[in-house]
């Protein structure tokens, strides 16, 4: 599974509607409203790199009010949840 972190600039007056539209897309697992240079951060998970083209420039960038995107593809995932699950295997709680 390929994970992409998509930073999204939007029309400021439409952030909630755009966030909902992005979150409704297949392959988008989470959307965060954030402070800073960008307005939203979307987590996109796809099986193949080619799917990124379908979802990011093909769908996210075409949502009315999306001004720009900046995409970062993850090499590895490090998660406290993953570590806790790995160490909890076979242990009774």
TrEMBL record:
Xref: SUPFAM superfamilies: Dimeric alpha+beta barrel
Domain Transcription regulator AsnC/Lrp ligand binding span(s) in chain numbering: 6-77
Secretion signal, residue range per the UniProt entry: none
InterPro entries xrefs: Dimeric_a/b-barrel, Tscrpt_reg_AsnC/Lrp_C
Highest taxon of source: Bacteria
PANTHER family: BSR5907 PROTEIN
Name of the molecule in the record: AsnC family transcriptional regulator
Organism lineage string: Bacteria, Bacillati, Actinomycetota, Actinomycetes, Kitasatosporales
């Amino acid at each position: 599974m390929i994970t992409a972190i998509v930073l999204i600039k939007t029309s400021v007056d439409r952030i909630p509607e755009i966030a909902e539209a992005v979150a409704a897309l297949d392959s988008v697992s989470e959307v965060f409203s954030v402070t800073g240079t960008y307005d939203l951060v979307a987590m996109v998970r796809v099986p193949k790199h080619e799917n990124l083209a379908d979802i990011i420039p093909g769908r996210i960038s075409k949502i009315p009010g999306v001004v720009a995107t900046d995409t970062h593809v993850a090499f590895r995932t490090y998660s406290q949840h993953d570590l806790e699950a790995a160490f909890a295997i076979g242990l009774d709680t």
